[in-house]
Amino acid sequence: MQLKYVGPKPLISHTGIDFDNNKDDKYAYLNIAVQLLKALDHDYFEEKTYTYNADTKRLSETELLSELQNYCDDLDKIMEETASHEEQEVLHQLHRADENETLSSEDKEVLKNNINLMKNYLIQREVNRAVYYCIVGKIAEVVKKDHIDYIVVPMFQKFAHVLHSVQGVLREQKFPIDMKLDIYEEDGKLFAKLQTINILDEV
């Protein structure tokens, strides 16, 4: 199994295959997430604030894989188990198509063909998603461990998406932190700022 971009979420039916362009492949955000983690995990923080430089060079595919292996010790296992799980999910979708009582036999066959056609696509998307959330989880760990108060990044879609993911992971964990994601303008440029507040400090 490898990591590669496939595309937005597929919408599979007996009438064809469409795509939800609002739900992109997590691979599209992986480079930014790894760069942010790498910076947070190594840079010195003054007053527990981190500002990400928009000019930071993107990692090559080789560098990206190396960093992923560095931060996700069980990267191969994550990918293999996710691929296996998604393959079972595809089989479940095929079974459901067979048992669908509202479709004709011909429509069932079309639906199953469409599912099979997108099988590798679906598996790759889930593998990319699992690896992305491994990195997002690591970012959340660093935020907690180093008690980072603010993370400021340029207001580009990918940066904001990664911060939103980190916010979601922190909220799911049983940890006394509240998060606030704001958008603001400075010197004619838009920025996104993730603020973390230790609730215990506020009491």
Distance between the termini: 48 Å
**What spatial form do the alpha-carbon principal axes imply?**
elongated
Please state the structural category: alpha+beta
Strand-and-helix sequence, N→C? Answer: EEHEHHHHEHEEH
Return residue spans where pLDDT drops below 50 for at least 5 consecutive residues. Answer: 199-203
| Strand count | 6
Provide the β-strand percentage band: 15-25%
Query: How confident is the prediction overall: mean pLDDT?
Result: 86
Structure in words:
- The strands form 2 sheets. The chain has a 4-stranded mixed sheet. Strands 1-2 form a two-stranded antiparallel ribbon.
- It is an alpha+beta fold and 203 residues long.
- It has one domain.
- Helices cover 55% and strands 19% of the residues.
- It has helices at 27-42, 61-71, 75-99, 105-117, 119-145, 157-172, 199-202; strands at 9-13, 16-20, 49-51, 150-154, 177-186, 189-198.
Task: List the topology elements.
Layout: E1 9-13, E2 16-20, H1 27-42, E3 49-51, H2 61-71, H3 75-99, H4 105-117, H5 119-145, E4 150-154, H6 157-172, E5 177-186, E6 189-198, H7 199-202
Parallel strand pairs: 3-4
Antiparallel strand pairs: 1-2, 4-6, 5-6
Features:
alpha+beta, 6 strands, four-stranded mixed β-sheet, single chain, disordered C terminus, 203 residues, elongated, two-stranded antiparallel ribbon, 7 helices
Put the structure in a nutshell.
The chain is α+β, with helices and mostly antiparallel strands. 55% of the residues lie in helices and 19% in strands. It has one domain (9-202).
